[in-house]
């Protein structure tokens, strides 16, 4: 086993453990859902009025409120928890729209999407592992990891949502 494969294995294990630790207690709440839906609807309404806005503008809509209103929300662990709660919302939207695309795309198109999605997951995991490890043993590492997961997942969820919208036309 080479040093590189050992390092990759260690990074993968850290990422899995960090993801599982965050995921256990950081499911989005009803309040998070309301914040995110309100933002989504506002972006949609503005676009219908001829303005150009993207769903990415909603990143932080729930996590920022969580950090401001939850006890301990401005601590490193509180920020990480709030960010991962919002990440879980974006991840659910991504998964719902991905499954909806399975119903509207041609089988060969969906196979291409599935292959791309698998590669995207590998990219996201590697990228966020880098952000986690970059901060070494510092407490900032959990916030950096959570921020990476939120931003990367939200970007992909918006992209999948746009593909679904175009496929429904």
From TrEMBL:
Residues 1-23 form the signal peptide. It comes from the Bacteria. The keyword Lyase does not apply. Keywords: Signal. Residues 66-159 form the Lysozyme inhibitor LprI-like N-terminal domain. This is Uncharacterized protein DUF1311. It comes from Maritalea mobilis.
């Amino acid at each position: 086993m080479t040093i590189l494969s050992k390092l990759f294995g260690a990074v993968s294990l850290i990422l899995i453990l960090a993801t599982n630790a965050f995921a256990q207690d950081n499911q989005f709440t009803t309040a998070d859902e309301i914040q995110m839906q309100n933002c989504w609807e506002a972006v949609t309404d503005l676009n219908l009025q001829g303005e150009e806005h993207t769903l990415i503008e909603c990143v932080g809509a729930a996590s920022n409120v969580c950090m401001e209103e939850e006890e301990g929300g401005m601590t490193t662990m509180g920020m990480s928890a709030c960010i991962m709660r919002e990440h879980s919302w974006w991840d659910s939207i991504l998964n719902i729209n991905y499954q909806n695309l399975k119903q509207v795309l041609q089988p060969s198109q969906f196979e291409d999407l599935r292959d791309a999605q698998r590669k995207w997951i590998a990219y996201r995991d590697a990228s966020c592992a880098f952000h986690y490890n970059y901060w070494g043993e510092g407490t900032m590492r959990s916030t950096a990891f959570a921020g990476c997961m939120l931003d990367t997942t939200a970007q992909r969820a918006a992209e999948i949502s746009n593909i679904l919208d175009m496929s429904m036309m």
